[in-house]
Design goal:
The complex is a heterotrimer of chains A (709), B (175) and C (102).
Chain A lengths: L2 H7 L2 H12 L5 H27 L9 E10 L2 E9 L1 H24 L19 E2 L5 E2 L6 H20 L3 H19 L6 H32 L4 H4 L2 H9 L9 H16 L8 H4 L5 H10 L1 H11 L1 H4 L3 H22 L5 H21 L3 H36 L15 H4 L1 H15 L6 H15 L3 H26 L6 H4 L6 H16 L18 H7 L13 H22 L13 H4 L4 H76 L7 H23 L3
Antiparallel strand pairs in A: 1-2, 3-4
Helix pairs in contact in A: 1-3, 2-3, 2-5, 3-4, 3-5, 4-5, 4-12, 4-17, 4-23, 5-6, 6-7, 7-10, 10-13, 10-15, 12-17, 13-16, 13-17, 15-16, 15-21, 16-17, 16-21, 17-19, 17-20, 17-23, 17-24, 19-21, 19-23, 20-25, 21-25
Chain B lengths: L2 H22 L3 H21 L3 H25 L15 H20 L17 H10 L5 H21 L11
Chain C lengths: L3 H21 L3 H25 L6 H31 L13
Classes of the chains: A mainly alpha (709), B mainly alpha (175), C mainly alpha (102).
Chain lengths: 709, 175, 102
């Protein structure tokens, strides 16, 4: 089978799984997860084969695996859609396939497959526990098990479509499918009002971004007549786009398109100001948080910017905006994460912050660094989320054991000492946390973050460098805070005491992802690290060849390395130091209300956007336009018809037809009859008289007319 | 003016005068008697017209039966022997006009007929009018059928009159 | 000698007088008297036409005889009716016999 055919086939198993589960396998939990995991495995297999072939192909950047079909006839050309795997696509395909497969396997255990059905479980609410034969309370299986696997299969289809596509149209299609699945999966437990609201919030917020992205795509299409990468990235096309000015902000066409496309990323990757949906999205089950909101969907935003880098980088204004937003988001989210107490919320803000890192990297032109951080972040963030899910499961064991449902199993201040109870989860979480913080040499995060710092420093973007360094310090700080509160120390509650390790379907993916979190960084060791002359960086060479001109690597700098070590190790140490003796939330000095309430952005948006929109919808559109005008017109028609009808009734129907014609006929007939009746008097002599008169008259008439004798 | 004409005029006056009396006299018996006079006049007229048989039949049937029947009917249908009140209807002047119009109309129509004033042909002396009449009445080529139908009619009238005027002996008294 | 017109005028006059009697008399029997006069006028007409036309055509006389028979039967039935009505209604005045009205 040719590689191109294989690439076409990669998105196929998940969508087939979706339809099979929805149509046929809905009733059987075992069949549903078998189909789903099997589909994920097939896609993984295909992706691995493609990846291996890709890295074995020289000059993949110039001659990627590509195949297209003519799809829509447009005047004298065709709109082409197809697949393309160049080096960037290959590495993205790699991590997407791995994380998707790991998360699918994890979901089997997360949703308690094999456990009994819950006592009071209703579809639409999280499972609440069941009593087994001994009267113990054990976790119960998720009632909507099959639905979950159907949805994540659909999501996987969307992500694979986005990765393998060679044009913006199918990329956007995959983008939107993932948006839909995000909505469906955040609101998975639909009976919870908070979940419903979070789902709507996520969809609406990303929609705002998507509108601008669609404008960008439309502008691009109308300017170039094509949406395929190979057509857009022709030098003459790029040159033409860069030279055409637009009336907005003095940007060139390329810059405007780039900015519009980037706004889509702001929505999808939860950058400031459209970041508000991601923390609320933690309402969904943890595999959803891991897959959609850490590893794949939010990465899609960054991937799209990386993909469109040749276009976006043409305009310096757009690049500045991108760098600013990325940097600001990184520091902004990091400050909020410091004050969060929910284990998943910390990770959510951490995701926002790390995506900000990648965006900032792109803003300063660090193409390869951003891609590198994208890959490594996917692994360790997925690891961290799955680990947090494992922790929550363990805490729920404890809650079921003690029967005290007031205790929130997600609050870190109810945890503590879990390293003894859940060792595998602890060690893998530790590795992930260190990777996130950028622990030197051993973790992937170090290498990728270091490369971003190097690029920022090397290109002279001081503000970006310093701000990202502070953000990295905060990252290490809150990560260690999280690890300390959760795993170290002593259990703070009884529930934490009774937690125990989760089963292999959940811990095995953790281990695999942890190994990637360690090893994935080593492919990107810079060539002149520490002044040594190592082999050329495989990652840089490989991914860099995607661009028509190989981007140069910024030179190694001791300042950067030092900064990196200081912020990472320092942050970890300070975090451990501060929190190792904190026993309860009151002792946490960093519970600053401003940070805890996310700078009140939700409240601001509610007052500035939501309330006016709601008011507008109600007062203007509903009351005035709909009820007053449109209904007024319709009521007017009704009243006019009634008025005409009553006029017709009163003056024509009643007066003319009823009284004159109807009653009139009757009255005239009666009058005629009454007056004719006396003729029949019963007296024969009168009859004879009348008949004689008539006879004489007729005879006279006939005689006169005919002159008969 | 021949004798015959004068005779005719006298007879005509008698007829018309007595018929006027028939229709105007108050006493009904008088009216019946005046009718008899009229019928006599008509019989004489028949004789003048050489229809001797008809003259006799007129006297026998009309006067002898019908007029007598009238007298019987008058007597049977009166509460008292005298007739009181006017015997003519209220609008009798209109009836006069109608009668005059009728007469005028008939006269007018007859006048425009060119055979109006012809005179009688001489009666053939050896013409057996009676025998011819008898032959005509019973001859199948002539008028036997009307004759027989007329006799059936008389029978029907006889039965009908008896039935209508029948007074059952018991029960039904005068109402 | 006597023109036909004299007979015809006489018969017309007698007919008109009889018509007047039929229309004007109150008593039902008197009405029948008027009818008799009219029938006689008709008979005069018949016979004079017979005499003044072809004498060998007996239709005139035959018809006169038929009229006799009809008049007789009609008078018989009519008077029988008048008597029957008189028995029921105790009146022979034609104006009062107006049941068959509206």
């Amino acid at each position: 089978m040719t590689t191109e055919t294989l690439i076409w086939l990669i998105p196929l198993p998940p969508i087939l799984a979706f339809f099979l589960i929805v149509l046929f396998a809905n009733r059987s939990k075992a069949l549903s997860h078998t189909i789903a995991v099997g589909a994920a495995f097939l896609s993984w297999l295909g992706a691995m084969i493609v990846f291996v072939r890709a890295i074995g192909t020289p000059e993949l950047g110039r001659t990627p695996f590509a195949s297209f079909i003519n799809w829509i006839p447009t005047a004298d050309t065709w709109l082409k859609v197809g697949v393309q795997i160049d080096p960037l696509g290959a590495v993205v395909l790699f991590f997407v396939a791995w994380t998707v497969l790991m998360i699918f396997i994890y979901s089997v255990g997360y949703h308690n497959f094999g456990q009994p059905k819950g006592d009071h479980d209703i579809a639409g609410l999280p499972p609440h526990g069941a009593s087994d034969e001994h009267g113990h309370h054990v976790p119960s299986v998720e009632p909507m098990y099959s639905r979950f696997f159907a949805f994540i299969s659909l999501f996987a289809f969307g992500m694979f479509t986005l990765v393998v596509s060679d044009n913006l149209l199918t990329l956007f299609a995959g983008w939107e499918i993932m948006g839909l699945c995000s909505y469906l999966l955040i609101g998975f437990w639909y009976a919870k009002p908070s979940a419903r609201d979070a789902a709507v919030k996520a969809f609406m917020t990303t929609r705002v971004g998507d509108v601008f992205m669609l404008l960008g795509i439309a502008f691009l299409y109308s300017a170039t007549g094509s949406l395929s990468y190979r057509d857009i990235f022709q030098p003459q096309v790029l040159g033409a786009l860069a030279s055409v000015p637009t009336p907005i902000f003095g940007l060139s066409a390329a810059g405007l398109i780039g900015l519009l496309l980037f706004i889509g990323t702001i929505g999808k990757s939860a950058q400031f100001p459209l970041h508000v949906w991601l923390p609320d999205a933690m309402e969904g089950p943890t595999p959803v948080s891991a897959m959609i909101h850490a590893a794949t969907m939010v990465s899609a935003g960054v991937y799209m910017v990386i993909r469109m880098f040749p276009l976006i980088s043409l305009d310096p204004h757009t690049m500045t905006i991108i760098a600013f937003i990325g940097t600001f988001t990184a520091i902004f989210a990091a400050t909020i994460a410091v004050a969060q107490n929910d284990i998943k919320k910390v990770l959510a803000y951490s995701t926002i912050s790390q995506l900000g890192f990648m965006i900032a990297a792109l803003g300063v032109g660090a193409y390869v660094a951003a891609a590198f951080h994208l890959v490594t972040h996917a692994f360790f963030k997925a690891l961290l989320f799955l680990g947090s899910g494992s922790v929550i499961h363990g805490m729920e064991h404890g809650v079921l054991h003690t029967g005290n449902h007031e205790v929130d199993p997600q609050n870190m201040f109810n945890m503590g000492g879990l390293r003894k109870k859940m060792p595998i989860t602890f060690w893998t979480f530790l590795i992930g946390g260190f990777a996130l913080s950028g622990f030197p040499l051993l973790t992937a995060g170090f290498w990728s973050k270091d490369e971003i710092f190097t690029e920022a420093f090397g290109t002279g973007h001081w503000i970006v460098f310093i701000t990202l360094a502070v953000a990295a310090f905060l990252t290490a700080f809150y990560t260690m805070r999280q690890i300390t509160l959760t795993f170290l120390g002593e259990p703070r509650t009884k529930e934490a005491e009774h937690a125990h390790e989760t089963k292999w379907t959940m811990t095995a993916p953790l281990v695999i992802l942890a190994s990637f979190a360690v090893c994935a960084g080593w492919v990107g060791i810079p060539q002149d690290f520490l002044g040594l002359h190592l082999n050329p960086t495989w990652f840089h060479e490989f991914v860099g060849s995607t661009l028509s001109v190989m981007p140069g690597a910024a030179p190694f700098s001791w300042i950067v390395l030092g900064t990196s070590l200081v912020v990472a190790l320092g942050g970890l140490f300070v975090g451990w130091l501060v929190y190792r003796n904190v026993a309860s939330v009151e002792q946490d000095k960093l519970q600053i209300p401003l940070l805890k309430n996310k700078y009140y952005f939700d409240e601001i948006y509610s007052a500035v956007f939501i309330k006016p929109a709601t008011w507008f919808a109600d007062a203007i559109v509903y009351q005035t336009m709909d009820k007053l005008l449109i209904d007024g017109v319709l009521h007017f028609f009704g009243k006019a018809a009634q008025a005409i009808g009553s006029v017709v009734r009163k003056y024509i129907d009643l007066l003319i037809i009823n009284r004159t014609i109807g009653d009139g006929t009757a009255r005239v007939t009666q009058w005629v009859g009454k007056n004719l009746r006396p003729i029949q008097s019963g007296r024969i002599q009168q009859y004879m008289l009348v008949s004689l008169i008539v006879l004489l008259a007729i005879a006279g008439l006939l005689y006169y007319l005919l002159a008969i004798v | 003016m021949t004798v015959l004409q004068i005779f005719f005029l006298i007879v005509a006056l008698v007829i018309l005068g007595s018929s006027l009396m028939v229709v105007t006299t108050r006493n009904l018996i008088h009216a019946a008697l005046w009718l008899i006079v009229t019928l006599f006049g008509v019989a004489v007229l028949y004789a003048v017209l050489n229809a001797g048989f008809l003259a006799v039949v007129q006297v026998v049937v009309y006067i002898g039966a019908i007029a007598i029947l009238f007298i019987f009917a008058v007597m049977l249908t009166r509460k008292e022997l005298r007739d009181r009140g006017p015997q003519l209807n209220r609008g009798w002047w209109l009836n006069v006009i109608i009668a005059l119009l009728t007469f005028g109309g008939l006269f007018w129509m007859l006048q425009s007929w060119n055979g109006f004033s012809k005179t009688a042909a001489a009666f053939p002396s050896s013409y057996d009018a009676l025998g011819q009449l008898g032959n005509a009445l019973i001859s199948p080529n002539a008028f036997v059928l009307p004759f027989e139908v007329a006799s059936v009619l008389l029978l029907a009238a006889l039965v009908g009159a008896v039935y209508i005027a029948f007074n059952p002996p018991s029960g039904d008294s005068r109402k | 000698m006597i023109p036909l017109s004299w007979f015809l005028i006489l018969s017309a006059a007698l007919f008109s007088i009889g018509l007047f009697g039929v229309l004007s008399r109150k008593n039902a029997v008197a009405i029948l008297l008027g009818i008799e006069l009219m029938l006689n006028a008709v008979n005069i007409n018949m016979v004079s036409f017979w005499r003044y036309g072809d004498v060998s055509q007996m239709a005139g006389q035959v018809f006169a005889i038929i009229v006799f028979a009809v008049a007789a039967s009609e008078v018989a039935v009519g008077l029988a009716l008048v008597i029957s009505v008189y028995r029921r209604r105790n009146t022979v005045i034609a104006e009062e016999l107006d049941l068959m009205k509206w």
